[in-house]
Amino acid sequence: MPDNLDPDRLLEDLNPSQREAVTATSGPLAIVAGAGSGKTRVISRRAAYAIETATVATDQILLVTFTDKAAGEMVERMAVLGHRGVMARTFHAAALAQLRHFWPSRHGGEPLPSILDSKLRLLVPLVGRLPGGYRFTPSKDVADTIEWAKVRRIKPDRWVTDGGDRAPIPADLFARLYRNYERAKAEADLLDFEDMLVRTVELLEDDPEAAALVRSRKRWFSVDEYQDTNPLSERLLELWLGESRDLAVVGDPDQTIYTFTGATPQFLLGFADRHPGARVVTLADNYRSSPQILALANHLVDGGVRGALRAVRPDGPAPSIRRFTEAEAEIRDIVAWVRAMAAEGVALTETAVLVRTNAQLPAIEDALTRAEIGFTVRGARFFERREVREARQLMKRAALEETGEGLSAAVERLFVERMGLDDVAADAGSEGRERAASLELLLRIVEDLAEADPGLTIGAVLAELDRRHEAEAAASAEGVNLLTYHRAKGLEWEAVYLPALDEGTLPIRQAKEADEIAEERRLLYVGITRARRHLTLSSSSRKPSRFLEAFEVPRPARRRSASGATSADRVRVLPGAPVATAAAPDERLLDALRRWRRERATADAVPAYVVFHDTTLAEIADLRPRSLPALRRVRGMGPLKLERYGEEILAVIDGTGEAYDEARGRAEDLLDESAPRGGRQWQRDELHDR
């Protein structure tokens, strides 16, 4: 350390809470840091202050970050502060280094096995050998479930009793697949991502000499994004720490959005109980967003676990909520919003559109392309997704001869038969939902093209998909940022648009339990707090997201906040577009639809999900369509299903027994006439192979 460094310089531009955290350099410390509160500055300054006040030597510090990128940035910050040589690593990187050191001496001189770059390399062929429709299960969902099991140290032989219904396939089938994956990994002499932690934990638990050596080298720890710690990494941290009490953790319970990977905020919330004498410092001053945006964020989470964020920046325009009757109008508004932001001097790179799933992005990409507005997709681009590439190749090989609407039906049949679009995987994990959504979007593109051109050929479809792919690939890094809420974590922009705040999208339809809904709420909170000055939220369905209800402001209750803004100024709802309370599902109709599906599935000798998934029935019950065109707009209702079941469903909605029976007879006659290989038998034998 240079002799001329004065530790007091590290405190000069800090607020009282930040200064308290920086100067607490020994003993257990929990820093509850709200969005935009300067936590990275606090982490780096605290480490520098500890070095300069002789609390700890540089080489005994380990700063644990959530990503490799964050680790690199932390090393750079420490160097700028005059302290090169401070180690910043992720849990996995630090564990891997320790494994590489100890492995040869504990395994007869053998080097550490290679690290598997992706579980999919081994899982794809294993999943492809599953029976029946389960072979369509997205390997990514299986990989995610294996990760969930491993961070809880649940091995294949314990899955059936300890795993519950977490897997996207039946528990016994998943246990066998999990076991085969572990066997294939061992035969190939490979370790996967979680094995880095599992094997290091086992090493330090079983080898006192190794544990003592590790603890002698690092004794002062700081862990960022602690709200996303899982049980396995928490156990590793305990083993690293040993008898040392010099542990600081930094996180925000209101930004816990990775529980599906095994993360839990309980380690942060219970830190003081597990570490007697721990200090807890809350960073609530927000340096990112305007008071108006923060009022919205605070209102959404009711002040948050740590208490309400306090605005430091000056006032800005009131956020707006916009209501549309159709998604197309919402997409047009996004384009208009981008242009309006540009007219106000906001650079395209300082604008962002955040969505719940990747499948929502292509429509926005297409609209921006046609408007000649540059954009960049952060994360997986639509046309680069595996299922989209496979679907395009399938359409090329199939050489379909149908045209117009007949082509739409042929493409849907192709996706059903060869890609399992209507199979169980569509209601599986997050990747299964995204996979189904991607295929359904491709179908909608074909249907829209067929509606515009009755003579549409497969060649024209492929040419249009090629055009859209090229436009997406040519997207410039200098344009509007398009990404999901999860990828937006840790980022910020001057202006943010949050579209499709609808029931079934955010919160996503699969979120049923209270803790799942709570996580969806936190996702929206993360999205809101990415914005510095301009924020727009919108809905484009009959059922706006329940979260929008939190932003309704009764006109009589106008109270002036500390920032000078009244409560009624917190949000601007466009005239004629009130924020409606999300209606409760029509449970009576939903029950009737389920009874109809059960009867139809029994008559057709197929599983119930082959007729319709629960998600589709729930949307029908929500929307109550009264005509075939209206029914066609329901997600999951392709032209084939509309043809087979449309009149029956309308009869169920209508509730007349005679109409139901008559429609059932007509639909069965139509199915028997149109379906190959003996009508419904085709669905059972050829499609599902059960």
Helix content: 40-55%
SS summary, helix count: 29
Q: What is the residue-mean pLDDT, rounded to a whole number?
A: 83
Strand order of the largest sheet: 13-14-12-15-16-11-17
Rg result: 28 Å
Low-confidence stretches: 553-569, 575-585, 656-661, 666-690
Structural class: alpha/beta
3D structure, described in words:
Strand 2, helix 3 and strand 3 (87-90) form a beta-alpha-beta unit. It is globular and about 80 Å long. Helix 23 (587-604) crosses helix 25 (614-623). The chain is an alpha/beta fold and 690 residues long.
List the helices and strands and how they pair.
Blueprint: H1 16-23, E1 29-33, H2 39-52, E2 61-65, H3 68-80, E3 87-90, H4 91-106, E4 114-115, H5 120-128, H6 139-151, H7 159-162, H8 171-187, E5 190-191, H9 193-206, H10 208-217, E6 220-223, H11 231-241, E7 247-251, H12 266-269, H13 271-274, E8 279-283, E9 285-286, H14 291-300, E10 310-311, E11 320-323, H15 327-343, E12 351-355, H16 361-370, E13 375-377, H17 386-398, H18 404-419, H19 430-452, H20 458-473, E14 480-484, H21 485-488, E15 493-498, H22 514-528, E16 531-539, E17 572-573, H23 587-604, H24 608-611, H25 614-623, H26 628-632, H27 639-654, H28 657-674, H29 680-687
Quick description:
The chain has 690 residues and is an alpha/beta fold. Helices cover 49% and strands 10% of the residues.
Summary tags:
690 residues, alpha/beta, 10% strand, 49% helix, disordered C terminus, 17 strands
